[in-house]
Specification:
single chain; about 240 residues; alpha/beta; Rossmann fold; 2 domains; 10 helices; elongated
């Protein structure tokens, strides 16, 4: 570790490296909002959402912790070296599970993600694809019994929401979740076609063709509805 860890309440803000401008703006706004209220911000130092979160914390005059996917002496990505120096200059920290001199590799980022979750009271995923490493951070947070929060819109976040994550659509939602009152989406109601398919499955009809025959719906409608039904069941269970 370089710098110092904070004893303040902490929020992890993570997401895609190849993030949209909207996603990065959201991460920056959430982090700044939290920092202005004395909340410590933790992230992974990567391009995209992570970097925006760290910069937002600094803009809010707060401290922030970077959990590196490399040795503590290797600034990665290299273009974030000035950002990391600024973080240390403002009472933040760089931490790593890896020995000094360890170069970053794809598996080292997955290896460090549970530490991001462990250093925070809640984990917010701002934007993510289904293959995003930030989903592993969310999974680690859930394993630790921490609240996971996701911003709707991206496929990875929609999956988290379907599986019971709290929702964030305003920076105040982060503070509410941190205070133990997260906001959740209302249970999704099935449309008539989806309800017919669900009833057919409940009656013991399995297989796309059997469901289509029972309901009289086109096969393409059944195929389109099945993943939605699975996510709705997971969300409501």
């Amino acid at each position: 570790m370089r710098g110092q860890l904070s004893d303040a309440p902490a929020v992890a803000i993570v997401g895609a490296r190849a993030a949209t401008r909207i996603g990065m703006d959201r991460a920056h706004t959430i982090a700044r909002h939290c920092a202005e209220r004395g909340v410590h911000v933790v992230s992974g130092g990567a391009l995209g959402i992570d970097g925006a979160a760290h910069r937002g914390a600094l803009a809010g005059r707060g401290a922030t912790t970077v959990v590196l996917g490399s040795g503590i002496d290797i600034a990665y990505p290299p273009r974030h070296a000035p950002l990391f120096a600024e973080i240390l200059a403002h009472d933040g920290a760089l931490v790593s599970l890896l020995p000094p001199g360890t170069a970053p590799r794809p598996h080292t980022f997955l290896h460090r993600n549970p530490l991001i979750a462990a250093l925070a009271d809640i984990t917010i995923v701002v934007e993510a694809s289904l293959a995003s490493g930030s989903l592993s951070t969310a999974a680690a947070a859930q394993k630790l019994g921490r609240i996971v929060v996701a911003w709707p819109g991206s496929r990875g976040c929609e999956r988290l929401l379907a599986r019971g994550a709290a929702v964030i659509e305003h920076p105040d939602d982060a503070i509410a979740a941190l205070s133990g009152t997260p906001r959740f989406r209302p249970a999704r109601k099935l449309d008539p076609s989806e309800q017919a398919i669900a009833d057919a499955i409940a009656a013991g009809h399995t297989g796309v063709d059997a469901i289509a025959l029972q309901t009289g719906l086109p096969v393409r409608t059944v195929l389109r509805a099945l993943p939605l039904l699975e996510e709705t069941e997971a969300r409501n269970s």
